[in-house]
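Let us work through a complete example step by step.
Step 1: write down the sequence.
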Amino acid sequence: MEIPITGFVVDNGNDHDSLHSHKLFITSWNGRPVHVHEFAGITSFDVGHRHDYAGTTEPAPSGVQHVHRYATVTSFNAQHSHIIRGETGPAVPLPGGGHIHYFEGTTTVSGSTPHSHMYRGQTSNEK
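Step 2: predict the structure and record it as tokens.
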């Protein structure tokens, strides 16, 4: 099954870089516009420290009930970082228009004393 996707590619501007890459921005999926959300927060305090995190969700269709996948790396604190990844809850409409999503989870295990952190929050309004 083929799903029509529209979007555009942005060049990183450095053709001489051995790690040359492009960013793909998807603007519609199967005929529906897509959008993303920003998210940020602070993990729980464990083993004497906490971590900051921030990122942007993967695109999802607009105008229908949906969730977003997300992934990011925490700040480097206490000589290590953690990976955060998951899937948001469903869209929660806002009174002035748009919507947010709630998310929560546990980071990957890392550190000289192996541990993980809890995190939770809500995304920004849709972009």
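Step 3: interpret the result. The mean pLDDT is 88.
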